[in-house]
Amino acid sequence: MAKFNLRKGALALAVVPLLALGACSAGGGKTEAAGADSGSAGQAVDTARIKVAMITHAAAGDTFWDIVRKGAETAAKKDNVELLYSGDAEGGRQAQLVQQAIDQKVDGIVVTLAKPDALKDVVKKAVDAGIPVVSMNAGEDQSKALGAFTHFGQSDKLAGVTVGKRLAEEGIKHPICVIQEQGHVGLENRCAGIKENVPGTEILNVNGADMTSVSSTVSAKLQSTPDADAIVGLGAPFTLTIVKSVKETGSKIKVASFDLNAELAKAIEDESVEFTVDQQPYLQGYGSVDAIWLSKVGGFKVGGGQQVYTGPAVVDKSNAGDVTAFAQAGIR
Q1: Both 86 and 162 in a single domain?
Q2: Whether residues 164 and 244 fall in one domain
Q3: Containing H/E element for 202?
Q4: What is this structure's pTM?
């Protein structure tokens, strides 16, 4: 076990540097390394260097994962961690990336569980090999059973319920919930939470890997469903595409969202979007890597076997201005 300098470690834990570290959207199975020399802050701990793999279901071009990665890289910088980041939206290929991390004998694995059935066997292999596993972002209901010692993220069902209650309060009767990745348990839970409060909710599946297709599918749905009174995107880039379709079709439908980026924050300020629920992805990346480090240097298990919630937090016109600066820095 790595030697732990308690005084320096405690100081490091007390300060979370808000850095906008450079990152690009990752997908397609590409693995990229970042470590203690990334970013501009000085190294904060003197513990032995460890290697942590973060493997997400990121699709190429989805900027949500840039924010997750920035949080992870900030924690890696602080904790003297070599971070190996990779992602693939297809469950089988994501499982292959986890297997590669096991073969590399990494010191810890952070993994998203959007497709838990595809990942359950390989996550068990990691745990059986003595590699601590933290799950993040998706699959909170399956996390513990699959062997992760904690999970960082929001409850997608609770986030959906939050949106559903807000829509119900506004008198919405027939919202359209747009799922950009079929089979993603977290996205399905979001729509289920909305439907729990607004029974007239309708599901629309789109191909999130092709924004042109998203736009045309949404436009066609708006034109064929004139009684729909709200449409909900399940991620900031998709909601912004929905906004364009609404404007192009001349629809008066209300738009709501999940997640946040700088452009969506501005859209809320100018009332193109009513509100969003933010799951604070920077915290997901940061907390997950930090939890692995804490496990390695002190045997600490963050969360007590339970999920560590990072959301949902409602952002609407009343508070969008407060978060815009952070969103523009790529932190929210």
Answers
A1: no
A2: yes
A3: strand 202-205
A4: 0.76
